[in-house]
Amino acid sequence: MQKKGQQKRSRGGFSLLEITLVVIIIGVLMAVVAVNMTGQGNAAKLRATKASMKVFKTVLSQYNLEHNTYPPDLRTLETVKLVEPGKNKDGWNRDFFYDPRGRSSDQPYLLSSHGPDGTAGTEDDVSVWTMDN
Length: 133
Hints:
The protein is mainly alpha-helical.
């Protein structure tokens, strides 16, 4: 029991443990958000790369119809005004790989992106002939 004249002290502020727990929780939440945003960033870049490759596939077919051959490089498409200058980049802002010598009649040229890692021949590469829609 309290004696007359004594007041119950209220607790002011947070303990160090409570502040530490809040900081840890905020850090974990920020890490989860960062991981999710990074994944979405790569997914968006992949979608942009595939969309650009579909455009190039159409433009290359148009060029072939007009000239009865595929262009020696993608910059040629800029000179004949089929593509805006500087648009031959993938979602990671790297030049597409293009080779007018294809593998077969089904693949008359090679057009690909080296994907997020930027290294040719890895499983994250995207080819105009094998990309899924």
